[in-house]
Amino acid sequence: MDLPSSSQSTTPHADPLAWKIIYEFTTTDLSLPNTEIRLKAHLGNCFIDADWQLALRAVMDAESDSEAALKAIQPLEHAAMQQPGLKIQNLHCPKELPQLKSTKNELMQSVNVLKSHNHIFDTPPTLDELLDPPEEAEIRKMDLFTIGEKGKKEIVEMVEHETAVARGEVIKIDLDEDEDLVGLCITRIQAMTLCEQLGRAVLEYEDHSSIFVMKI
To answer: From what superkingdom does this record's organism come (predicted)?
Structure first.
């Protein structure tokens, strides 16, 4: 059965296709940033972030438990469809799980302890700021489609280089002052070859080792 188009919905947050994206976020490996990108692409100028935060947070709070997430968002979808003039953020929020509430309390207690020991100098972060840091919110707002082919290529090259370093295939040489030599590196094979050559040279010039060292 075909879903009705967004033009048939009285309000964006009652759009069946938008809710279909929410369900994909719930039951697949679709990430939160990509879910928001797809909602924005589908709803266009009608997208309002606050309209969807309760549904998105319900899925995140379920912590990969698809069944629990579905139970949390189904009442939200039903209410949005039955009362399209009602904003989602004003709908009834499912009762918070005791374990989740206890974890949040422990988190805030840890913040208070850090503050009391002078490990936090500024205003302590709120619970919402800890769970959803403003820095991450800014990243989610970035349009990932503006990276371009050049940017994608640079990202791929950077990831490949870091992977090679982690495997020991490339040796980094960190030089603080000489900018001309920044990024200079040799492979593991080249390093082994140099060591072998040096060992042979030491054996060959054993009687004149001091002279050889001075030349090096």
So the answer is: Eukaryota
Dihedral of CA atoms 129, 130, 131, 132 in degrees, nearest 10, equals 40
Q: What type of residue sits at position 203?
A: L
Domain assignments of the chain as residue spans, ordered by start: 6-90, 98-141, 148-215
What are the tens digits of pLDDT across the range 57-105? 888 888 878 888 898 888 888 888 776 554 544 444 455 677 777 888 8
Residue 64 — φ and ψ, nearest 5°?
Answer: 70, 10
Q: Of 116, 115, 113, nearest to 124 (Cα)?
A: 115
Which residue numbers in the chain have pLDDT < 50?
A: 1-9, 86, 88-93, 145, 177-178, 181-182, 209-216
Catalogue the long-range contacts made by 65-74 (C-beta closer than 8 Å, 24 or more residues apart).
66/26, 66/27, 69/26, 70/23, 70/26, 70/27, 73/22, 73/23, 73/26
pTM: 0.37
Q: What's the burial of 37, exposed, middle or buried (CB within 10 Å: 0-12/13-18/19+)?
A: middle
Residues in the chain: 216
| pLDDT tens track for 19-30 | 999 999 988 888
